[in-house]
Design brief:
Elements: E1 2-8, E2 16-21, E3 24-30, E4 39-43, E5 45-50, H1 66-77, H2 82-99, E6 101-110, H3 117-127, E7 134-141, H4 150-162, E8 166-169, H5 177-191, E9 195-199, H6 210-220, E10 226-230, H7 239-251, E11 255-258, H8 260-266, H9 282-288, E12 292-294, H10 311-322, H11 327-334, E13 349-352, H12 357-363, E14 369-372, E15 375-376, H13 379-392, E16 395-397
Parallel strand pairs: 1-4, 5-6, 6-7, 7-8, 9-10, 10-11, 11-12
Antiparallel strand pairs: 1-2, 1-16, 2-3, 4-13, 13-14, 14-15
This protein binds zinc ion (ZN).
Zinc ion (ZN) binds near residues 51, 229 and 297.
Length: about 400
């Protein structure tokens, strides 16, 4: 049994002692020592949308638009080796752990040029960190692969055979977007895997495919098996239309992943100052009961020159962009839907050297400690725990 003493929590003011037993949280009570907390305990962070195989490729120039970034990424794909990709992915996954992320879903390129190199590179990187991080791989038919083509379906099948657990695509970049979307869903059914699709990453209302996604999900009985990433166009559709769509998405269990940094950076880019935020409406989506999550999306690549895989940073930017800033609601967006730590939870927790959630968001300090199933992971985390234990008695061991 271990006790985390005098910690702050997301969902209530004060100072608390958390008792961990084995893999789980056994008790939460008012702290025996009433000193102001110096550590925040919160659910571990979850990044539901990354591109680890491209991370830290750090190109020299900024993209002029989303289309320009897509073209740059396409040019680069032919030259990246499996080892290049493993090294990039490994850096992102290790940085994620240092930030306190316990799960990353990463969209991993497949196309006839890349073949399985990206899948193999990310699988190799993921195998290095299995005790600390859950890595979900989406076999991602990017700009160079159309899901309605037989060769792309073969690539999906091969990637799933190697360990990808979802499939995804960007229908808007295909010759017939609606056909590509239907083909993606049909392939998911055939392979018996869920879907995470980059959809409507634009603000052009007539070009929206979100209605079709909802209908196609219902028609195929894929409720609970579909995630839509981006859906920026929801912010450009009439309000009544959006409400109806969101209600249907909630009923169909469609998860909405919003990417605050990328949407702010790339939407309405290239023609003077942007007039819109470019994000799907998170407040309305939550109100309708749609499960909403945030993700970092690209980190230091052709699409986005900044970022470090830190979901606290994404939470901070997302709070500004979406205006969802109530602690529990915002916490759920960056912690895989967990709003608070509850008795009985698996002890997948994050300790941040901060006095409260707002302090953690404001400063995003280093020296965080990630716990998986009650055990701290990573050498740096063990050092931090030992130092803190010696100085302030954050952690006590008891039998
Ligand atoms: Zn993406």
């Amino acid at each position: 049994m271990r006790i985390l003493r005098s910690v702050a929590l997301i969902d209530r003011a004060g100072s608390f002692d958390l008792v961990l037993e084995g893999e789980r949280v056994r008790d939460i009570s008012a702290a025996a020592d009433a000193a102001a907390p110096r550590w925040l305990a919160m659910p571990s962070l979850v990044n539901l949308h990354a591109h680890a195989n491209r991370a830290y490729a750090a190109p020299a120039r900024r993209p002029s638009s989303l289309g320009d970034a897509v073209a740059s990424a396409k040019r680069e794909r032919a030259s990246a080796t499996t080892e290049d990709i493993r090294a990039r992915a490994s850096k992102l996954l290790r940085r994620s752990i240092e930030h306190g992320v316990s799960s990353v879903r990463t969209h991993t390129d497949i196309d006839v040029v890349t073949g399985m190199r990206a899948i193999d590179g990310v699988l190799a990187a993921a195998s290095e960190v299995t005790s600390a991080l859950d890595v979900e791989i989406v076999a991602f038919a990017s700009a160079a692969a159309d899901p309605s083509h037989p060769e792309t379906r073969a690539l999906f099948s091969e990637a799933v055979g190697r360990g990808a657990s979802l499939i995804g695509a960007v229908p808007a970049l295909c010759a017939h977007p609606a056909r590509a979307l239907d083909a993606l869903l049909d392939t998911a059914m055939a392979l018996d895997v869920p879907v995470d699709v980059h959809l409507d990453e634009h603000l052009d209302a007539p070009g929206a495919l979100i209605h079709r996604l909802v209908e196609a999900t219902e028609a195929r009985g894929l409720q609970g098996r579909v995630t839509v990433s981006h859906a920026c166009v929801l912010s450009a559709l009439p309000c009544a239309d959006v409400r109806r769509l969101l209600d249907r998405m909630a009923a169909a269990g469609i998860v909405l992943v919003v990417l605050p940094e990328l949407n702010l950076y790339l939407q309405a880019r290239g023609d003077g100052a942007p007039r819109v935020r470019g994000l799907a409406p998170v407040i309305e989506a939550l109100k309708s009961g749609v499960p909403v999550r945030f993700g970092t999306d690209n980190v230091r690549d052709w699409f986005f020159p900044f970022g470090d895989g830190d979901m606290l940073e994404t939470g901070f930017v997302g709070a500004l962009a979406s205006q969802v800033d109530a602690a529990e609601e915002l916490g759920a967006l960056i912690c895989g839907g967990r709003r608070r730590i509850e008795v009985g939870d698996l002890a997948d927790l994050l300790l941040v050297p901060a006095s409260c959630f707002d302090d953690a968001l404001a400063r995003r300090p280093a020296g965080r400690v990630l716990l998986r199933r009650g055990e701290e992971v990573g050498a740096a985390a063990r050092g931090a725990m030992a130092a803190v234990s010696g100085q302030a008695g954050l952690v006590d061991a008891a039998d």
